[in-house]
């Protein structure tokens, strides 16, 4: 299948089949989820030796585990013997995992340390039968990522300019961040519907989320919306975000905070925040939502992280966490978590209204007739705005520039046979 | 156990279920005290068999579906009366089945009541969800009437099988 032909960036048209085709989905599993850096968990979830959390990389179940030398490791949750999962818990602390089926036992370094009746096997070389490790694992300011592709670029190269914006959430205060959660739930929608929404869709908020805002529950201040200087930012490698740019007369890290208490908190720590982030990131640009390609999304202002785990072409499992400054007082952490979960979670007064939109967009992609009519991504096409002190390619908030950027990268990754081809396509 | 009290508590919980199923949400909210706490934590699968239920549920203040007081629960309800709360437009049809009602404690003012629930939800053409779990309520006698001062809800699912919980449990 010619993937690139499904995305028409000049015409602003996308063939709906990308949200429903089994063939495309299987290609995503091999070329995208088995190849890209994917979010596994947060360092605050596994602080001590032996701590583990169960995670997923695409559909692959994975164990994120801190070994007894303090190193982070990640393995496929798979007994090498017959394929049973070696871990059935969501999190905890373990010295070893023992498979329930025949008792093969693995250490936190992934070594096969015990095989019952090993003498009955012919020449079993235990060194060859350890847990399957990820190819690369690294963390960025608390966020732990891994990839199954040894040829993937390093994590800093992969994140590129997106890291500069991630700092605004992750590195405001000494000590970084910590997470609580996850919320986990299953939705009959293609994972990309959510990734593109968080990555650029400022447009849907008035229509989809008007009911919450009418009652004064919002993700930013009403002054921010009145100022209305929103930007789409495409960082390359498919990473995209939307951000507010601060009016000069209100410049400060409190700008755009969703509730007054958190504005006060930011105001109180403004000097520290500015010394860590510099004046542009502390005072001028305030990201609201974004997507780290392919399936990690964040909402900076309401402090949520979420992964859109694919579960087939027309199903995803959402895992979402509240993320707060570690150095914040307990009371402020509670406010941050409440602001986050009251808005973004299965009971979130914002998020619960998103679901049917994504489900029905996915449903339309299964329709024979609807597929004859492409989806419209023509908002503010070809408009480019200069913000010389920001990074990435900047467009108006009222634009599909980010979404097209995400899908063009998506098509490039699916068409490339290896990372070298992805890289050369980027340069060319 | 005082059978009159049991009848009173059961009637109260069934009335409450009726208000929810008839979407009389403002009347439902009036059944709570002004200092209400409506809490529903997330839960996870532990590595070892826990001694207490608390070990597999999130700590208070951390991760939850609901952690509401009267104001925040009230805002959820008022939102649903607006025209564009899309998760409930068109609205869900629910059936709250409340059972296994146990009166655990009564100090003359407050009564601790545990019960189980099965809530069936259907919506639009053929959406269907079933929410199952247990409630731990503190009911308070206020001017001779029962009111809910505290409700803790423990859903049995670890991974929620529904696209959202836009109804009340």
Structure, described:
Chain A is an alpha+beta fold and 428 residues long. Chain A folds into 2 domains: 297 residues, Naphthalene 1,2-dioxygenase Alpha Subunit, Chain A, domain 1; 101 residues, Rieske Iron-sulfur Protein (3-layer Sandwich), CATH 2.102.10.10. Chain A is built from 13 helices and 21 strands. In chain A, the strands form 5 sheets. In chain A, strands 13-19-18-17-16-15-14-21 form an 8-stranded antiparallel sheet, sandwiched between helices. Chain A has a 4-stranded antiparallel sheet with strand order 6-5-4-7, with no helix packed on it. In chain A, strands 1-2-20 form a 3-stranded antiparallel sheet, covered by helices on one side. In chain A, a hairpin with a 4-residue loop joins strand 9 and strand 10. The two termini of chain A are 22 Å apart. The mean pLDDT of chain A is 95. Chain B is α+β, with helices and mostly antiparallel strands and 169 residues long. Chain B has one domain: Nuclear Transport Factor 2, Chain: A (Roll). Helix content of chain B is 21%, strand content 41%. A 6-stranded mixed sheet of chain B has the order 2-1-6-5-4-3.
CATH class of chain B: Alpha Beta
CATH superfamily of the largest domain in chain A: Naphthalene 1,2-dioxygenase Alpha Subunit, Chain A, domain 1
Based on CA atoms alone, the radius of gyration of chain A comes out at 22 Å
Strand content of chain B: 35-45%
In the sheet with the most strands of chain B, the strands line up as 2-1-6-5-4-3
Measured by residues with Cβ under 8 Å of the partner chain's Cβ, the largest interface is: A-B, 44 and 35 residues
Number of helices of chain A: 13
Assembly type: heterodimer
| Distance from first to last alpha carbon of chain B | 27 Å
The count of domains of chain B is 1
Label the overall shape of chain B: globular
CATH hierarchy class name of the largest domain in chain A: Alpha Beta
Sheet with most strands of chain A: 8 strands, antiparallel
Q: What's the tally of helices of chain B?
A: 3
CATH architectural grouping of the largest domain in chain A: Alpha-Beta Complex
């Amino acid at each position: 299948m010619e993937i690139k032909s499904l995305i028409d960036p000049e015409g602003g048209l996308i063939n709906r089949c990308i949200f429903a085709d089994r063939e495309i989905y299987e290609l995503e599993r091999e070329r995208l989820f088995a190849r890209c850096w994917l979010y596994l968990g947060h360092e605050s979830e596994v602080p001590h030796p032996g701590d583990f959390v169960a995670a997923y990389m695409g559909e692959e179940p994975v164990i994120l585990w801190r070994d007894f030398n303090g190193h982070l490791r990640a393995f496929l949750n798979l007994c090498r013997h017959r394929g049973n999962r070696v871990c059935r818990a969501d999190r905890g602390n373990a010295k070893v995992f023992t498979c329930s089926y025949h008792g093969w036992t693995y250490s936190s370094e992934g070594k096969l340390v015990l095989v019952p009746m090993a003498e009955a096997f012919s020449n079993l070389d235990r060194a060859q039968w350890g847990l399957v490790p990820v190819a690369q694992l690294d963390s960025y300011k608390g966020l732990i990522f891994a990839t199954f592709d040894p040829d993937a670029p390093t994590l800093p190269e992969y994140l590129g300019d997106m890291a500069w914006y991630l700092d605004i959430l992750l590195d405001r205060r000494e000590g970084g961040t910590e997470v609580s959660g996850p919320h986990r739930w299953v939705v009959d929608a293609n994972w990309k519907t959510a990734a593109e929404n968080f990555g650029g869709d400022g447009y849907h908020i008035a229509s989809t989320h008007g009911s919450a805002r009418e009652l004064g529950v919002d993700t930013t201040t009403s002054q921010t919306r009145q100022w209305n200087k929103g930007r789409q930012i495409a960082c390359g490698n498919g990473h995209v975000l939307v951000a507010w740019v601060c009016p000069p007369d209100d410049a400060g890290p409190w700008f755009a905070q969703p509730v007054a208490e958190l504005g006060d908190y930011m105001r109180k720590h403004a000097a520290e925040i500015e010394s860590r982030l510099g004046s542009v990131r502390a005072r001028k640009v305030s990201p609201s939502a974004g997507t780290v390609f392919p399936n990690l999304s964040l909402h900076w202002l309401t402090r949520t992280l979420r992964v859109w785990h694919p579960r087939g072409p027309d199903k995803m499992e959402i895992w979402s966490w509240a993320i707060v400054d570690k150095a914040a007082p307990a009371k402020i952490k509670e406010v941050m978590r409440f602001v986050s979960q009251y808005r973004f979670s299965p009971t979130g007064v914002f998020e619960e209204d998103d679901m049917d939109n994504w489900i029905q967009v996915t449903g339309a992609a299964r329709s024979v007739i609807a597929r004859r009519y492409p989806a419209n991504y023509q908002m503010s096409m070809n408009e480019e705005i200069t913000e010389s002190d920001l990074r990435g390619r900047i467009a108006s908030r009222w634009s599909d520039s980010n979404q097209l950027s995400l899908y063009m990268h998506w098509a490039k990754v699916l068409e490339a046979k290896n990372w070298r081809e992805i890289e050369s396509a980027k340069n060319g | 156990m005082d059978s009159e009290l049991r009848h009173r508590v059961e009637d109260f919980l069934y009335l409450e279920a009726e208000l929810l199923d008839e979407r009389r949400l403002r009347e439902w909210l009036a059944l709570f005290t002004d200092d209400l706490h409506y809490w529903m934590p997330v839960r996870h699968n532990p590595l070892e068999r826990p001694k207490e239920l608390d070990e597999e549920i999130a700590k208070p203040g951390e991760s939850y579906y609901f952690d509401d007081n009267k104001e925040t629960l009230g805002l959820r309800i008022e939102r649903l009366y607006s025209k564009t709360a899309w998760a409930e437009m068109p609205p869900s049809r629910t059936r709250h089945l409340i059972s296994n009602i146990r009166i655990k404690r009564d100090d003359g003012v407050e009564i601790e009541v545990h019960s189980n629930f099965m809530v069936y939800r259907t919506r639009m053409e053929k959406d269907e969800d079933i929410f199952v779990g247990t409630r731990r309520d503190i009911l308070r006698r206020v001017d001779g009437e029962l009111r809910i001062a505290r409700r803790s809800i423990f859903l049995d699912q670890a991974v929620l099988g529904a696209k959202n919980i836009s109804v009340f449990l």
